Every structure is written in structure tokens, then in C-alpha cells.
Glutathione S-transferase kappa (Entomortierella parvispora), 224 residues
Amino acid sequence: MTSPASIVCYYDIVSPYSYFGVMLLNRYKEKWGDKVQVELRPMFLHGIMTGSKNQPPANVPAKGTYMFSDLNRICNMTGIPYSFPSQFPVMTVHVMRLLIVIQKCEPALYQACVEALYGAYWGKGEDVTQKEVIMAALAPVFNGSESKVAELIQMAAEKDIKQKLVDNTNEALDKGAFGAPWFVVKQAGSDEEHFFFGSDRFELMTNFLDLPYYGLAVNKSAKL
């Protein structure tokens, strides 16, 4: 039986382009159905930047200035809520470990949790490293159960979870990652990996996989 096409997206909550990339990928995959397998794989962006000897855009004055305008344009075009966080950048290692726990233990709710944490940080501008912010974001996903969220947070401190984040990050580095989002793409029936970087590569990826591309705009008259 031929294996389906696949997209693995390596992401970190701290990355604004990962936010838009993940939200768009989730939007598209609902329409793609079973034509492609999609996975959101947590990694630690600080480890990627260090390992690849890259620098965050905000560390380069011209790139930082451009990024602020660019993010607003993406928000206006896509209709995805955006508010620059009160604290940026933040060290998301604990948040990413938590998402590994959720992916492992609550797979049916994983996507909703990713979107909820992204929504808190990049949608509302809240400091997602704070426990009360995490609780407020995730409790509704678990039917209001703060005790369940607290249990998952506690599990994120376990040794195997910490190691899994390290492994995911090293795996992405081995595949050439130098930032986020980093996409690893396979065509149907092939084990050959192809790599795409950034939230603006969906037209290329969908063409490569022979998938429909729905564009960025929810409103075709959106102004940049």
C-alpha cells in the first residue's frame, strides 16, 4: 500500500512565524482530508538558533523593524488574531515540554492545546510562560479541569519528556533546520525528505505535493 504524503512541522510557541504557519497549516489540512498526514512536532527554537549559529530576526535591527510590519500584514491578510506579546522573547522550554506531554497523553486534544497556547501568546499578547496564563488557556480544552492541566504540567518535568524535547530539537537540526517553522515534506509513496522554511512556503509545498492551495486571505479585499 502506498504511503500518503506527509508534512511534519517543527515549531516553537515563541516564534511568530510558527504561529501563523501552524494556524494556516491547521486551516488547510481540514480541507485536504486524507490526502496528506500532518504532524506538529514541538522543538526548542533557542536550541535551533544556537546549533545552527543563526540569529533571531529581532537581534538584527533592520530585520526586527521589518518583522513588526510583516506580522501585521500577515494578520490583516489571513484574519488570524495577532497582538505582540507583553514579554518577548520568552524561554519556552517548559511550554514545549508540556506540549510533548499533551501530544503523548492526550493526542485527540493536542491540536486544540497548541492553538490555545499560541492564541494566548500571539493572539492576546499574554506571557505564556506564566502558570496562570497556561491554566486559563488550556483549562477550557479540558472541560474546565484545572486539575488535569496541573497534572500535565507536573508530568512535563519528567526526565523522558525533557529528553524528548532535546531529541526533537536535534532531529530538526540534523534535517537542516535553522529557524521555525521548519517543514519536512514527503511525497506520496516516497521516503525522500524535502525541506521548507517559513510560514510563506505553502504555495510551494502544495504544488510539490499536488494539493490544493487556498491562499492566505480569508477576505480577498484585505488591505496590506
Remarks:
- The chain has nine helices and four strands.
- The first strand starts at residue 5 and ends at 11.
- The longest helix spans residues 61-78.
